[in-house]
Each structure stands twice: as structure tokens, then as C-alpha cells.
Amino acid sequence: MTYYDDISSGYEELHKEEQLKKVEEIKKHLKLEKTDKLLDVGCGTGLTTEPWDCQRYGIDPAPKLLERARQKDKIEFKLAPAEDIPYPDHHFDVVISITAIQNFQDIEKGLKEIKRVGKDKFVLSFLKKSGKKSMIDYAIRKLFKVDKTIEEDKDLIYICEGIK
Q: Which one of 48, 61, 111, 133 has the minimum C-beta count within 10 Å?
């Protein structure tokens, strides 16, 4: 994760506005209760974890991004890759991964881990320009019940209700 560690000091300046815009769009389609547990996979500095009004958790493989994330209140952050999520099966009411899937070392394994730790609500997004676009789309549709696909400026966002 050298690239993300290298840009950690300016990460929020670079990405805050566009990431928060994605979260606002997602909130139109995903209603959560204060008691719900949300996991943000590839959370970075916690930009996409922080805006939710529920119990929040985040994982990321970049130590320096997590140093910044841990400065945020009342969120549990762990150093971990998507391919090895350190939580039990069906632990989270909702699992999100915003603009991170294209960076997974093993996309299918990461998505299977997301499926394993989630119950039935998932929001998955990745860069439209990713060279892995068709592979990611296929893997998401194979593992999850896609309720809605949203084409955002830079991302494709999949709102999923349930697993296959």
C-alpha cells in the first residue's frame, strides 16, 4: 500500500468532495438504523465511514491512512485487506466499499469476504475507468443480488439487497 501511504497527508484534500458526494447519493437508496453495524472496506481515512449515523467500523490495508482515520470519533478501524476481514460471519447489517474494489489484490476473494461478514445490505462501487470493470461487474452480479446500479461521475455504484 505504498501509494496510499505516500499520499496519506493529502488524501482528504484530494478526495473528500467527490467521496462525500457518493455517500450522499448512496444515502438516498440505503436507510440505516442507529443500531445497525456498518463496515467500510477500504475505508482509507474514514471519509466514507464517518457520515453514517450508526455503529461504524472500517478496515484498510494502508497504515498511514488508518492513522488519520483513527483521529475520528467513535469508529473502530482495523488494519486489514479486503481479502482477510477480521470479523465473524454475518457480523454487519451493511457492508460498503466505496471506490476501493479495483484496488483489491484478489477481487473475487475480497468480494467473497464482504459477502461472508455481511447480512443482506451491501453497497459496492468502483472506478468506471478501471481496466477491471467487466470482471468486477461479473463478480458482483455472481455473488450479490443487485437491486440498483447508479452511474456516478467517476464510479459505478451497486446497491445490493441480499446474497446469492
A: 133
**Can you tell me which residue has the cell 476501493?**
100
Question: Nearest Cα to 66, choosing from 41, 87, 50, 44?
Answer: 44
Q: To 10 degrees, what angle do helices 133-143 and 107-117 make?
A: 30
Which domains does the chain show, CATH number per domain? Answer: 2-23+34-163 (3.40.50.150)
- The closest alpha carbon to 144, from 103, 104, 116, belongs to 116
43-56 pLDDT, tens digit each: 988 989 999 999 99
In whole angstroms, what is the distance from residue 159 CA to residue 18 CA?
18
* DSSP strands (E only) in 17-163: 37-41, 55-60, 75-79, 92-97, 118-127, 144-151, 155-163
Report field, pTM of the whole predicted structure over 0.70? yes
Spell out the residues 6+ positions from residue 13 whose beta carbon is closer than 8 angstroms to its own.
none
Cα–Cα distance, 139 to 112 (Å, whole number): 9
Whole-angstrom Cα distance, residue 119 to residue 133?
25
Q: Do 54 and 36 form a contact (C-beta atoms < 8 A)?
A: yes
